Amino acid sequence: MLATVLVLSPYIIPNPFGPVVTVAEAKVQPEFLQVGRVYGRAFFFHENPVIYWLGGPSSGMLFLGSMSPLILLGLALPFWMRQPVKFSLVKQVKETGLLPQIILASLGLFFLAHAFLFHLYFPNRYVYHSLRVVAALAAGIAWTVWLEAKSRLVSQQITAGLTGRQFLSLGLTVLLGATLMTAPFLPQINLPGQLQIAGEVPRL
Predict the structure, then answer these.
(1) pLDDT tens over the chain, length 204 residues
(2) Phi, psi (degrees; rounded to nearest 5) at 34
(3) Is residue 34 classed as helix, strand or coil in its secondary structure?
(4) Which of 39, 123, 139, 178 could form a disulfide with 74 if both were Cys (CB 3.0 to 4.6 A apart)?
(5) Is residue 142 a contact partner of residue 74, using CB atoms and an 8 Å limit?
């Protein structure tokens, strides 16, 4: 709590660059709006609440840029944590409580930034980086837990003798794993620069 107060205290000091733009002012400035099919350079407001709260690049909590498909397996971690018999490695995962704490703190600051718009800058800045880090950590743990369980199962199947169906399942698993691991490193199928637009102004 003390750290939060210390970090946010500079925001109460008068800004030497002038007052922060108000919500009423921003709602009439094209920089913060979508005009036709053109998005303002600081696009924020949108009449669709789904875009405004979830998908907006500055206002939404789920605008996280492009990420590797490997990250998606992190969504399974909370469910696997409840299955220690099938995924025995979860018994050794003791610090995952830190991940939901980071998420809760990020979401708290996200809604606080919405409540005090724009005094704490754009709300998305409080979830963009932290949720990407949490997603990567959760995915790493989930992949490790799954690989251990899968390798243990395959070892048992090989010992007992693989059936044709089990051999096909093993082959498809290896192919899928190899594809997911190599895909993020192929520039031909990735979005360059995380969809950011390169500036054309000459170097300073």
Answers:
(1) 788 778 777 767 777 777 778 889 989 898 898 877 888 888 899 989 999 999 898 999 998 877 777 788 888 888 888 888 888 888 887 666 788 899 999 999 999 999 999 888 899 999 999 999 999 999 989 988 888 888 888 787 777 777 778 788 888 878 877 777 776 666 666 555 555 667 777 776
(2) -105, 115
(3) strand
(4) 139
(5) yes
